Amino acid sequence: MKAIVVYESLWGNTAAIAKAIAEGIGANANVLSTAEAGAKAVAGADLLVVGAPVLGFGLPRDGMLQSIGMNPARYKKQPDVSQPPMRTWLEGLPAGRGRAAAFETRIWWSPGGSTGGIENGLKRAGYTPLAKGMRFLVQGAEGPLKDGELEKAKAWGRELAQLMK
User: Fold this and answer.
1) How far apart are CA 6 and CA 55, in angstroms?
2) What is the CA radius of gyration of the chain?
């Protein structure tokens, strides 16, 4: 099984969750940022697991990321705005026939979410949903992850791998 976990991460929380999900899926799962996950890298994927943070009640928009990038001193941790936004990555995702799942990182009370937008983009590209989107919690906008979230991500990765059998 060719499994790929793709993420957009501003403060490292979504990247950490992506790595934990891949660990749960197994040794054959690759973890790629949106900058690394070009058409060749995802071609022929049997399972595509895609995640992003919730920002402004949904998937981050270009304007939000530009604003964050222009004001990095306002944050405790330096945000990584060098990756293509998940919205842009999904728009360029080539057609596929595999299965897919979406995840997001968020603060517990955040309205809206990212999984719906991710799932819609994956469906448009021909990927069939494997599981309901998963939410992982961070403490405050920049994190860190809440206790137990990495273990939850590994367990979800194992569940996705079982569903693929």
Assistant:
1) 18
2) 15
- Helix/strand/coil for 119: helix
Residue 30 φ/ψ, nearest 5 degrees: -100, 145
pTM above 0.90, yes or no: yes
Inter-helix orientation angle 13-25/149-164, to 10°: 40
H/E run at residue 135: strand 134-137
The predicted-structure confidence for 83-135, as pLDDT tens digits, reads as follows 999 999 999 999 999 999 999 999 988 888 999 999 999 999 999 999 999 99
Cα-based distances in Å from 61 to 94, 116, 137, 152: 21, 15, 20, 27
* CA-to-CA dists, residue 135 to 62, 110, 145, angstroms: 22, 11, 12
Task: Please name the amino acid found at residue 55.
Answer: L
Q: What phi-psi label fits residue 56: left (phi over 0), alpha (psi between -120 and 50 degrees) or beta?
A: left
Cβ–Cβ under 8 Å, residues 82 and 31: no
State how far the Cα of 78 lies from the Cα of 93, in Å rounded to an integer: 28
